[in-house]
């Protein structure tokens, strides 16, 4: 048999507590835990109550002396602010810290702290206690300046000389996606644009650089002297940046100057704008030749739109014939591979049942059209155009009709089936008071559905308020829609950082 080795047993000596006489293990203080806690309080000098200052408008907490921090309830940022508000915490060793649940509307925050400290004769004592914070409302300096309404040092004025607001709806989504409005003091709408106000000139310059990177535009800077200190030779200026966006938008028909058309690969002067990014993208509906016009090139050779979206007429497609590659004209410039050239015979919707007049034209959207479809076009044969560039062209070179886009179903029906929505910079800026502005916004939403390249730069959110509808309706076949994979979860209004209404909470 194998005998297990004997393990030596160590005897534990016990002593009596010098205060209460309870048998305990020896320790440097010769006292039990209960007596040691009654004799020594290591949390002495650490306040058990404190005050936190909270700005209800921007939902930030004050981190002394003058720094305001965004922090949600029971977050690391808020815990850091609470610990920095305690004096005497550096005299002990902090072991653990956490929040104790309180009513969200109580305006009270409780933090449970676990600290250690060396006490009598080298003994280390650990203690747990709770600190209660009272949240007081106080307006931060930035919000105070905003309420003053006259405090700003730089202003960015964005303008576009057009009859509709589709460009600003798109620009608003770009600003929201890239958070370019983060340092704005105030945003005000103007008759033909927006005004952004800043505290510093550098913040305004960053906004101008952002606008130059997303839309074709030009800017001019001006400054106004507010005050001058003669003793130390300091000047106080207000800076204004005037940004003018190119007045060409998607689905506009333009007539290029002769020299500009020659420099763009000898493209046909009559073109359709099918997209606007950092440059204006043009396409010739007769040859599918494409060209890009940047902001500096446009301002050197400016041209205007021949018609507004309200001047477009509805036509019905009577016949479609695709143009073969061998029948296409030979061109020197770049040709679009996303469009299909086709010959169209169309009739006005208003003439159906009255006469059988048809118009022949070429179009670049042949891949979308079938017989019986409805399209929007511009009747150039009966239009009274006051354009210097188009007067230099020969009459036989002008088309009778220029087709711009296809109409996908009824607007009201598409709106009922639209289960997504967009965010806005400010509810006051997006108050649509007229039917014209409402139509412009509806057209912008339809452009997002029809063009995937545009909505790549836009945050689209699911609209939970919309009642689910039957998407298998045969009347909606062919209508472009946005898939659920492209939508983001909406942020609902719930509890803010103090427990009151106003903060974002993920659905």
Would you give an account of this structure?
The protein has 507 residues and is an alpha+beta fold. It has 11 helices and 27 strands. It folds into 5 domains: 30 residues, no CATH class; 97 residues, no CATH class; 94 residues; 124 residues, no CATH class; 95 residues, no CATH class. 18% of the residues lie in helices and 33% in strands. The strands form 7 sheets. It has a 6-stranded mixed β-sheet with strand order 5-4-3-8-7-6, covered by helices on one side. Strands 10-11-9-13-12 form a 5-stranded mixed β-sheet. The radius of gyration is 35 Å and the shape is elongated. The C terminus is likely disordered.
Topology:
Blueprint: E1 15-16, E2 23-24, H1 33-39, E3 49-55, E4 60-63, E5 67-70, H2 76-84, E6 93-100, E7 108-118, E8 124-137, H3 141-148, E9 154-159, H4 166-178, E10 184-190, E11 193-198, H5 201-214, E12 217-229, E13 234-245, E14 253-255, H6 258-263, E15 270-276, E16 280-283, E17 289-293, H7 295-300, E18 313-322, E19 334-335, E20 342-348, E21 359-363, E22 374-379, H8 388-391, E23 401-407, H9 411-416, E24 420-421, H10 435-450, H11 452-455, E25 461-462, E26 491-495, E27 501-506
């Amino acid at each position: 048999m194998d005998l297990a080795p004997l393990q030596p047993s160590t005897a534990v000596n016990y002593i009596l507590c010098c205060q209460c006489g309870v048998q305990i293990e020896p320790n440097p203080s010769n006292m039990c835990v209960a007596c040691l806690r009654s004799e020594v309080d290591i949390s002495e000098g650490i306040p058990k109550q404190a005050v936190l200052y909270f700005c209800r408008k921007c939902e930030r907490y004050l981190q002394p002396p003058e720094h305001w921090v965004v922090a949600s309830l029971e977050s690391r940022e808020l815990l850091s602010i609470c610990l920095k508000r305690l004096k005497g915490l550096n005299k002990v060793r902090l072991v653990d810290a956490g929040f104790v649940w309180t009513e969200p509307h109580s305006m009270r925050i409780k933090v449970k702290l676990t600290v250690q400290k060396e006490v009598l004769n080298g003994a280390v004592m650990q203690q747990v206690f709770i600190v209660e914070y009272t949240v007081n409302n106080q307006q931060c300096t930035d919000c105070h300046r905003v309420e003053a309404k006259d405090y700003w040092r730089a202003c960015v004025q964005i303008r576009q000389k057009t009859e509709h607001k589709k460009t600003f709806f798109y620009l608003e989504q770009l600003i929201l996606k890239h958070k370019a409005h983060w340092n704005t003091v105030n945003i005000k709408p103007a008759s033909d644009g927006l005004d952004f106000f800043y505290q510093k000139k550098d913040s305004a310059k960053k906004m101008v650089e952002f606008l130059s990177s997303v839309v074709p535009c030009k800017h001019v800077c001006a400054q106004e002297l507010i005050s001058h200190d003669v003793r130390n030779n300091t000047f106080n200026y207000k800076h204004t940046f005037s940004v003018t966006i190119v007045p060409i938008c998607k689905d506009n028909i333009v007539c290029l100057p002769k020299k500009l058309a020659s420099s763009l690969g000898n493209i046909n002067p009559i073109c359709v704008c099918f997209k606007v990014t950092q440059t204006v993208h043009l396409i010739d509906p007769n040859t599918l030749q494409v060209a890009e016009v940047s902001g500096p090139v446009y301002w050197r050779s400016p041209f205007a739109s021949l018609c507004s979206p309200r001047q477009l007429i509805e036509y019905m497609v009577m016949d479609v014939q695709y143009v073969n590659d061998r029948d296409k004209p030979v061109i020197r410039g770049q040709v679009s591979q996303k469009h299909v050239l086709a010959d169209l015979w169309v009739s006005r919707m208003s003439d159906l049942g009255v006469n059988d007049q048809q118009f022949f034209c070429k179009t670049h959207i042949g891949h979308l059209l079938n017989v019986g479809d409805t399209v929007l076009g511009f009747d150039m044969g009966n239009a009274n155009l006051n354009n210097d560039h188009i007067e230099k062209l020969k009459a036989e070179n002008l088309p009778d009709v220029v087709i711009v886009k296809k109409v996908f179903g009824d607007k009201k029906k598409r709106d009922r089936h639209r289960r997504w929505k967009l965010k806005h910079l400010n509810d006051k800026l997006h108050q649509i008071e007229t039917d014209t502005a409402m139509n412009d916004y509806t057209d912008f939403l339809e452009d997002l559905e029809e063009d995937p390249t545009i909505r790549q730069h836009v945050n689209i959110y699911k609209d939970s308020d919309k009642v689910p509808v039957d998407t298998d309706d045969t009347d909606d076949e062919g209508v472009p829609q946005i898939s659920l994979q492209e939508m983001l979860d909406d942020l609902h209004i719930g509890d803010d950082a103090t427990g009151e209404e106003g903060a974002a909470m993920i659905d």
